[in-house]
Amino acid sequence: MRRDRISKRAQRRTQYTNELYTQARSSLCPDQPPIPPAASEDQRNFEADLLHEVIDSHTDFTEFSFGIRCVRPHRDTIELTVENEKRAGRLLNRILPSYEPDGEVHGMLGLRIRQRTKRGIEIHVAGRRTSAWLTGLPSAAWKRHELAVLENLADIAWHPLWRGAQEWSAEELAFEQRWNTGAWARHFQAGAWCSSGLLRRLAVFHTITPADAVTGYRGLGINGYEGLGPVRWCLDVIHRSGVPYDKETLVDALTDSEFGLPVAPARHLDAIYPPDETKNCIRLDDNARTGLVELRFQTFNYPSLQLSSCGPEYRDIAEGVERRIAQVLSGER
User: Fold this and answer.
1) Euclidean distance between CA atoms 243 and 137, whole angstroms
2) Half-sphere exposure of 169 (CA within 13 A, CB side)
3) Is the pLDDT of residue 303 over 70?
4) CB 4: neighbour CB atoms within 10 A?
5) Between the CA atoms of 228, 230, 231 and 235, what dihedral angle is there, to the nearest 10 degrees?
């Protein structure tokens, strides 16, 4: 009986992470949540910032949600497996910090590469107990994409900040003090549990929903909340014509008492959307009103990306998307 329960928990975890069953089973720990939260405030804030960069750097058509094939959450680290080289290049270009002379710091402040191994690269924020692994490519490919970022910075005369010293640069410290110590910073940190929690469950958007794509952004506050309101993640779950929405399955997964987030359907919708569209917009928030997940189900066709008419650059991706949608619709997942 106990063995059956462990197997069911492992199988259920794969729906949120897209790990192999054996990986999910080996990650389960007695008396611990099947998807553990980040162990420290620093790790939680780091993952919240990383989710923001993962979503904002996702600008192309991908087979998996935001171009991340699977996630492997552990208490003190998280692993993100990118689906291809293009996605790896865009992500590194976004997160590696650089300084624009007489301007500002770009990328994730204080981010450094701790290790470069056959497994991938481990990134962290210098001086803080943080860790994330980027995997999915050979070590030579990660090195090549890092060098490409360096070349791009040289072309525009910006200074890379992640190489060399393992402490924050003067430019990063000044930028942090100016922009990340006020009310907005405290606001984002208060909702970091939600952001980190979404990152640790990112695969749920492509394992159980028959969507072609998921896009999103971190939105501004909305009516009905005090002050700045919750940290709001707006996620567009995009389907092709003829594919029904499965809103209940996704909502049930995100609100599941064991595997999901501590959220429930919000009690209101403001006037952003016309009344006939609110039925396809679902908001989930917590009791303290610090985190908000806004799911917006949409139908939109991408003729150039359909398997029958897409170009060679996207053919493999389109085939993978159609295969994944067929599996979800047939209940094979």
Assistant:
1) 33
2) 19
3) no
4) 8
5) -120
Is 254 in contact with 284 (CB distance < 8 Å)?
yes
Report how far residue 149's alpha carbon sits from residue 82's, in angstroms, rounded to the nearest whole number: 17
- Least Cα distance to 168 among 106, 94, 111 occurs for 111
Q: Band the pLDDT of 55: cuts 50, 70, 90.
A: very high
Cβ-proximal residues to 132 (8 Å cutoff; 6+ apart), any chain: 46, 47, 50, 77, 78, 79, 80, 122, 123, 124
- Which residue is listed with tokens 């050979």? 138
Determine the Cα angle at 24 with ends 330 and 243, to 5°.
25
DSSP character at residue 38: P
Collapsing DSSP to helix, strand or coil, 333 comes out as coil
Segment 231-239 shows an average pLDDT of 95
CB-CB contact of 131 with 125 (8 Å): no
